[in-house]
Amino acid sequence: MREGVSFWVERRTVTAWATTKQALADGCFSRTFAYDATGTRWPILDATFARDLSLLDQVLPWRLVPVAVSFGQPIPQSQEAIADCVIKTLDFDGHEYSPLVEDQIRRCARSASSPRELIEKLAGIDG
Q: Domain ranges in the chain?
């Protein structure tokens, strides 16, 4: 998640993450963090390609390349704090999503039995 920019739900393990050469160059991992299934917030300190770029990686801009990610100290978060962060991210660049979407996010936070369930529910919300 990049607070105020974007969020997504990744179902692959961190060792299977990949990105494009351009996205990494544009700083897609800067000021970014991840939540795990327990609701713990993990700041991403650095992301680098996990292997040397092949010729195809270099000339095909859409090609996904595995990345190695290093994390900072974990920070436990409540479900409500996760929901607040998602709401801040949806309300960016002066574009506010409808109060119905914010209400839906808050209901997800209250009704989820675990951070994992909340994150799965948030993945299904369409703003």
A: 14-76, 79-123
- How many Å apart are CA 69 and CA 32, to the nearest integer? 11
pTM equals: 0.77
- Cα–Cα distance, 68 to 32 (Å, whole number): 14
**pLDDT tens-digit readout, 75-127:** 998 888 888 887 777 765 555 666 777 788 788 878 888 888 887 887 776 54
In this structure, are residues 83 and 120 in contact, taking their beta carbons and an 8 Å threshold? no
DSSP code per residue over 25-93: HTTTTTT-EEE-TT-EEEEEEEEEESSPPPHHHHH-TT--EEEEEEE---EE--HHHHHHHHHHHHSBT
* Residue 8, CA atoms < 13 Å, CB-side half-sphere: 7
Cα 59 to Cα 61: distance, rounded to the nearest angstrom = 6
